Amino acid sequence: MEGTLTGLCFAVKDNMDVLGAVTGTGNPHWSKSRLQAKNHAPLVERLIAVGASLTGKTIQEELAFSVVGNNPHFPTLENPVSPGHFIGGSSSGSAAVVATRQVNFALGTDTAGSVRVPASNCGLYGIRPSHGALSAQGIVPLAPSFDVPGWMAVDAHVFARVGNVLLADLPEIPLGAGAPISSVWASLPENVAALYQEALAGLPLDLLSVRPDFPHWQWSLDEAAEAFRVLQAMEVWALFGEWAMKSQSHELSQDIKDRILAGRTLASRDLSAARFLRSRVCHDLIATVEECGLLLMPTVSSPPAALDACAEQLADYRKNIIRLTCLTSLSGLPEVTIPLIKSNGFCWGLSVIGPRRSDRSLLSLAEEISYSRDFDNRLV
Fold this sequence. Notes:
Elements: E1 9-13, H1 28-32, H2 42-49, E2 53-58, H3 92-99, E3 105-110, H4 116-121, E4 125-128, E5 148-153, H5 156-166, E6 179-180, H6 182-186, H7 190-200, H8 221-246, H9 254-261, H10 268-292, E7 295-298, H11 311-331, E8 335-343, E9 346-353, H12 359-372, H13 375-378
Parallel strand pairs: 1-2, 1-3, 6-7
Antiparallel strand pairs: 3-5, 4-5, 4-8, 7-9, 8-9
Helix pairs in contact: 5-12, 8-9, 8-10, 8-11, 10-11
């Protein structure tokens, strides 16, 4: 694979080790207590080994603990596609440098949608790989049972080329025609649903006849999102709780600190219920996707948050986003977001979810869809 990515340049999120740089994970005070990395993270090293040029690190949300795209310790990142709005996702800086064509692709991490959301909001291709398919060594964790590294690109072919390097050990798995998750589509605002309905016409997918929800799914999107919230809070508290309790007001933004400290109040019954529901969601999604070959849904259900949004509006935004993104976070299945729509200054992605370890097949499908419609030239 020597030279496979020669001529391409990339950037990496600030929670990934880069030789000679401090891994700051979006917080300058955390950085002060850390030493320069002695090695690249294995994913970074692998890309460099096949010819890709590393150009630098990108701004991220503090500790990667949000899907909005704001970090008070750094200049505000405005969405290059939707002025006046955030980019979304803690990998917002990675999306920004790709969307503005400063690099060909960028690495990020995805716990609750932090690759998928900014990719969708900026008209990019993005992937949350199968959990465990890529090494997390040299990456600062947030909630390890949910964390995965991923990447974004503006071009479908580049997107797939990166996957052929990083996921070279995975096989190509045949995918089915696709079954929509009807409860997700039904939850879309009417104007957004109409945009999708028009854009999906002519794609090599059968999505226009939305069938009833799968009868064996005895849980709702809200219940799945709550299970995710509880389990993520537990894991974040275990990693950052002690530091958050000792931090001064200028060292950690109040919103992030409050959300970290919320993990210490979780009752054992809440954790037990969340673990049980996670097992049901995981079982049901894996069984359904193996039967259907592919599950399809909108990547996000609302536009990116406005830069002047109040705290309550940002909390509502996070809640709405996680209702969709939690499905593959809970199940560990791979999900690719494909740019589908640009309308009224906003971009909307189509998410395709495949069986475990079908990541490379999803990348190939993204290429096929991009060639069926001129996405790459029409968006951004």
